[in-house]
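WARN retry 2 of 3 for item q-0093 after timeout on previous attempt; input resubmitted unchanged.
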Amino acid sequence: MSDKDWYAILGLPPLADADAVKKAFRQMSLKHHPDKGGDVDKFHELQQASQFLLDPVEKKKYDAKITQVTMKEKQSKERQAKMSEERKRMADELLRREEQTNRKKPKHVMEDLKAKARQHMEEMQEKREQAARERAELLGQSLKKGDIKQRTIRVSWDNKKESHSDQTLVNAFRQYGEIEVVKMKNNSARLVFSEAASATQAARIEGHNVSKWKDVTLVGHVVHQYQEPKVSTGYGGSRQTYPAADSESTVQLSLHPISLAELAPFEEKVLAHLKRLAQGI
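OK item q-0093 returned
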């Protein structure tokens, strides 16, 4: 019997007092009394509600139960409200972070670009250092092969007419032989060939190509000048003598372009001198 909502049957709020119960019963009875054309079952239910709520013992128990249920419902509603507020706060926080991320995105893009630029510069620096190491290694190898000056030519040109790079110089001179090193400086360069003969040939031919080059010279072509033996007369007849090794003079060819006419006499003297040494004369 106590499972019904007696206050609601009488149209009262929960925990209404006895006076309110009596007043509500009188008003509802006038409306639902069978003698007034009301429903018998409804009137009987009103009587049950009035009798139950006017019993102090039953009303106290019933009110305690309602209070407990009401507190639970209130707590449940408060929890739901708190959860709703927490969910709303979390949603607002996520939205705020997303907005901050979107605002910071251009800065992140700039940082990425700066990082890529730094990486590119480091890679370029590493390539330059690697190229320098390779050139130094080639130069070291060429030094081991002998006098590097005899394998080096100096080339200069007029910047107003044309300009050159390592590659254009290699393309122009590699027909004479393998080129190990090209060292640029303003409008001039030094080319180191793997063979002295290649450098000599390049200087001979390109040195006369004045329409293209301002100057092409062999940096250090040194040959020993053959000296005619001295004839001395004395006891026992005449005899030939040769200068000692420490008195042997050297001649360095001019640094201007070398022609065949200039170089040929020196080569003939060197060959004659070597031939005499080989024959033990």
